[in-house]
Every structure is written in structure tokens, then in C-alpha cells.
């Protein structure tokens, strides 16, 4: 996604909450580039929520773009305005490629710190989340193999 700022005269300042996020995909302009996860993959993940007891699993919107956001007001704005649960810089690229090639896709993100809650990075939580996601991927591969036999 790209950011489009409103017109402002010199010395009127800047306010990132006023920015809009747009895409210039396939010659279109001023359209938000919204990609959706594959419903079958969402269902697959939803069934595994009960197996994770070190935190919470949330299903929703990942805000993804070429921005590393550390502004609490902007984070809250994106959550309120676009229902963004978390942000990253990679998911939109993966979704774009997968969508272009008709590959089912889902973004899974582990959150091991939270700027809004003031939580520091927790390396151990990150490692445990990685193990859980790895297990989900193993389960998915096994399920795919069962259907291909």
C-alpha cells in the first residue's frame, strides 16, 4: 500500500491520521488494496485455537505496507478505522503474489510485544509462538496429503 497525504499549505504541518492508504494496482488509482485470506485456511486455523494456551489467537485484519509504525495514536486510529489488529511490512507482498497466481493464502502473525499496552519484546513468547505456528503448518501439510491420496 502507498500513502496519500491531503494537500496542505506550507507551515500547515503534517498529520499521519489524515493520510489515506491506496494502491496503484493494475492501473487503478486511489483504491485500497484489500486482500482476503482463503476461507478454508481461516477455518483450518480457527479449529486449532483451542490448542494454544500461552496467549490469545485473534482472527482479523493485518495492516500491511511499507511503513514501520510506532505512533500510538496512529495504531489506535488504524484499529478503530480499519479494524487492524496488528501491522507488518510483509503480508501485503505475500498476499499480492499469492492472489496473482491463485494460491490460497493466509497471514499468521505472532505478537510478542505491544506498543499500546507497553509490553516489551518477549523472546520466549516469540519462540513458543513459532513452535505453535510450525505445528499448524505440519498439520496443514498432513491434511493436504490426506486429501491428495
Order of strands, widest sheet: 1-2
CATH superfamily: Nucleoside phosphorylase domain
Overall tally of domains: 1
Structural class: alpha+beta
> How widely separated are the two ends?
40 Å
Uncertain parts:
none
Give the percentage of residues in beta strands.
5-15%
Record field, number of beta strands: 4
Report the CATH topology name: Rossmann fold
Order of helices and strands: EEHEHEHH
The CATH C-level name is Alpha Beta
Count of helices?
A: 4
C-alpha Rg (nearest Å) = 18 Å
Fraction of residues in helix: 25-40%
Global geometry: flat
Main sheet specs: 2 strands, antiparallel
CATH architectural label: 3-Layer(aba) Sandwich
Can you give the mean pLDDT?
Answer: 83
What would you say this structure looks like, in words?
The protein is of the alpha+beta class and 149 residues long. The protein has one domain (34-148): Nucleoside phosphorylase domain (Rossmann fold), CATH 3.40.50. It is built from four helices and four strands. The chain has helices spanning 39-46, 72-82, 91-100, 123-148; strands spanning 2-4, 20-22, 61-64, 84-88. It is flat, with a radius of gyration of 18 Å.
